[in-house]
Amino acid sequence: MCDKCAELDEKIEHYRAILSRVTDQIALNGISELIAELLAEKTGLHPEHSEEE
Fold first, then answer.
1. Are 34 and 15 in contact (CB under 8 A)?
2. Is 33 among the domain residues?
3. What is the pLDDT of residue 45?
4. Residues 6+ apart with CB under 8 A from 10
5. Which pTM value belongs to this model?
6. What three-state secondary structure class fits 27?
7. Does residue 51 belong to any structural domain of this protein?
8. Which of 6, 8, 13, 29 is deepest in the core (most CB within 10 A)?
9. Residue 50 — pLDDT band, cuts 50, 70, 90?
């Protein structure tokens, strides 16, 4: 795993932890979108890995 992927994983886990404590639906939607964007960015860094999964 490259350094950028590790950094993205760390951010994703941070946002997932926040998701478990937030009850506001608008905030939940925003955080979910952030997670999706980070996952897409991670996939974009190594598209050959996403094809294998």
1. yes
2. yes
3. 86
4. none
5. 0.80
6. helix
7. no
8. 8
9. low
Query: Residue 36: inside a domain, yes or no?
Result: yes
pLDDT at 53: 46
In the predicted structure, residue 48 carries a pLDDT above the cut 80: no
How many CB atoms lie under 10 A from the CB of residue 42? 20
- Where in the sequence is the domain holding 10, given as residue range(s)? 3-46
Q: Are 34 and 25 in contact (CB under 8 A)?
A: no
Place of tokens 């998701």: 19
Q: Is 12 a domain residue? A: yes
Structural domains of the chain, count = 1
* CA dist., res. 39 & res. 47, Å (int): 11
Q: 2 φ, ψ to 5°?
A: -80, 165
